[in-house]
Design a protein that fits this description.
Layout lengths: L1 H19 L6 H19 L1 H4 L2 H4 L7 E3 L4 E3 H15 L5 E13 L2 E14 L4 E17 L2 E14 L7
Antiparallel strand pairs: 1-2, 3-4, 4-5, 5-6
């Protein structure tokens, strides 16, 4: 009897362990998650067009956004964050270039990691310059409406120094 209990316990433990492992990410899910971040960045860059609707729509309503300088909770705070720079500079031009995507399974959905580089207008002539660089990492959750960002974290790596022409 003790030997049988050990075998049953071992199988039960293995079954429980496997049920707790995240599933794999399908190609379709990878593509949808990648598209989610593209939509997120486009929504932020063009928040003035729709009052931040596209940007805000990529998040769960109770999402928590951390970027090292801010800690935002919920749709209202996240929307205001995308619109704040436009209050002082309504003609602001800001663009993300996003690359090197990695998606891994997570018990709640998936973890997305991608690198970014931003271009922004600067100075009195509104010349474009390389702004911040870094990495986005987010916990993304699949909902009935598609994948949504639950908890994004932005790891800024600073600006890029440029050389003047000789």
């Amino acid at each position: 009897l003790p030997a049988i209990l050990c075998v049953v316990s071992a199988f039960a433990g293995a079954a429980y362990s496997q049920s707790r492992r995240p599933s794999s990410i399908s190609t379709d899910d990878f593509t949808e998650i990648q598209r989610l971040l593209y939509t997120n960045h486009t929504g932020y860059d063009f928040a003035m067009r729709d009052h931040g609707d596209l940007w805000t729509g990529t998040f769960l309503p109770d999402a928590v956004l951390d970027n090292g300088q801010t800690h935002l909770v919920g749709e209202k705070d996240i929307r205001e964050y995308s619109l704040a720079p436009l209050k002082d500079n309504p003609d602001r031009k800001f663009r993300h270039w996003t690359t090197t995507f990695h998606v891994s399974p997570h018990p709640e959905g998936a973890i997305l990691s991608a690198f970014y580089l931003t271009i922004a207008d600067t100075g009195p002539n509104r010349n474009k310059g390389i702004g911040g660089t870094g990495r986005d990492e987010s916990l993304d959750v699949k909902t009935k409406a598609g994948w949504r960002i639950k908890q994004p974290v932005v790891y800024g790596a600073g600006g890029v120094a440029t050389r003047a022409e000789a």
